[in-house]
Design brief:
By secondary structure, the chain is α+β, with helices and mostly antiparallel strands. The protein has 2 domains: about 190 residues, Fructose-1,6-Bisphosphatase, Chain A, domain 1, CATH 3.30.540; about 120 residues, D-Maltodextrin-Binding Protein, domain 2 (3-Layer(aba) Sandwich). About 30% of the residues lie in helices and about 20% in strands. The protein contains 9 helices and 13 strands. It has an 8-stranded mixed beta sheet, with helices on both faces. A 5-stranded mixed beta sheet has the order 10-9-11-13-12, sandwiched between helices. The longest helix has 22 residues. The structure holds 2,5-anhydro-1,6-di-O-phosphono-D-mannitol and magnesium ion (MG). Magnesium ion binds next to β3. 2,5-anhydro-1,6-di-O-phosphono-D-mannitol binds next to loops.
């Protein structure tokens, strides 16, 4: 008897797509292509420690290929994998200043936009810390075949799909199209993502708070109050919470999604609007978190309600278990 493979992500996407109103076969093909890019990035990340070894000269590795920084590599991989599919009208990447138009030599008229952070947390990569790719898909809303900036400046609640791939102790893909959050673990022996975490639900109250507390003296008073709340002793609500902070957003978010807790990147003296980007980080993770039963706010608004005004807009982020975000909201908006 052959071993049962389990549900592959491709099968899952095709089945899910049939249930979503208004999406076509293009949509599952788009995601499938993106997942192939994720597999290529997975392969590169898993060899991260060898890059210097193989490319000592800094120019080429033993195969004669140019040795590239991994975030550049991930960025180029996604662009090259997606630009000729005909499904996208444009892309936007955290690594690229302007929107990425689809070259005239490729099919035009794609119905979707793709915004992505190719390798979030990449400053940690030399220490073997988990990193991730975050993605967000919207429908094109402007007329004409080419995508424009306005196609990207849409509220997070208009996302058709959001997800991330975490390159960790195992590589996982987590995605939602608005009917729950589903996690797939990469099985390298068959080269497929296999459904391992269907319908992920985050605990309504967590045990973890995650923030860079080294910045506490640069925070405003309200943020300090929020963090003091999670550190205070209170048996009924299980406080103090544990502090856990990797400094790699996908990893911190993923852990808190599964275990429950709140991730905080507030505005501070260095980052008056917060550090994290609305389109590539906050909005897609907010969609996932909401779908898993959690919540996400900036200091004053629901993340998914914010209408972006620029591509690389930053936003403060308080995201995680519903009850914990409720406390953040109460303190942040108190008089
Ligand atoms: P980047 O987009 O420059 O890589 O920064 C994003 C990263 C996140 O992964 C992480 O949550 C955050 O920066 C950590 O910032 P800090 O080092 O200030 O705590
Ligand atoms: Mg990032």
């Amino acid at each position: 008897m052959p071993e049962r493979l389990g549900i592959t992500v491709t099968k899952h996407i095709m089945e899910t797509q049939r249930k979503i109103k208004g999406v076509s076969g293009n949509f599952s093909s788009l995601l499938s292509e993106l997942i192939v890019a994720g597999k290529v990035i997975h392969r590169a990340v898993s060899k991260a420690g060898l890059i210097d070894v193989l490319g000592k000269t800094g120019l080429t590795n033993t195969q004669g290929e140019e040795v590239q920084k991994l975030d550049d590599f991930a960025n180029t991989t996604i662009i090259q994998k997606m630009d000729h599919t005909g499904f996208l009208c444009a892309m936007a990447s955290e690594e690229v200043e302007d929107i990425i138009e689809i070259d005239a030599k490729h099919p035009q008229g794609g119905k979707y936009t793709l915004a992505f952070d190719p390798l979030d947390g990449s400053s940690n990569i030399d220490a073997n810390v988990s990193v991730g790719t975050i993605f967000s898909i919207h429908r094109k809303i402007t007329d004409g075949k080419k995508g424009s900036l306005n196609d990207f400046l849409q509220q997070g609640k208009r996302q058709v799909c959001a997800g991330y791939i975490i390159y960790g102790s195992s590589t996982m893909l987590v995605y939602t199209v608005g009917n729950g959050v589903h996690g797939f673990t990469f099985d390298p022996s068959v080269g497929e993502f296999i459904l391992s975490h269907p319908f992920i639900k985050t605990p309504s109250r967590g045990k973890i708070f995650s923030c860079n507390e080294g910045n506490a003296n640069k925070w405003n008073e309200k943020t300090r109050e929020v963090v003091d709340y999670f550190k205070a002793i209170d048996e009924d609500t299980g406080r103090p919470y544990s502090a856990r902070y990797i400094g790699s957003l996908v990893s911190d978010f993923h852990r808190n999604l599964l275990y429950g807790g709140v991730f905080i990147y507030p505005n501070d003296q260095n980052y008056p609007n917060g550090k994290l980007r609305l389109l590539y980080e906050a909005a897609p993770l907010a969609m996932i978190c909401k779908q898993a039963g959690g919540d996400a706010i900036s200091d004053s608004e629901e993340i998914l309600e914010i209408k972006p005004t620029e591509l690389h807009q930053r936003v403060p982020l308080f995201i995680g278990s519903k009850e914990d975000v409720k406390v953040c909201r109460r303190i942040l908006t108190s008089g």
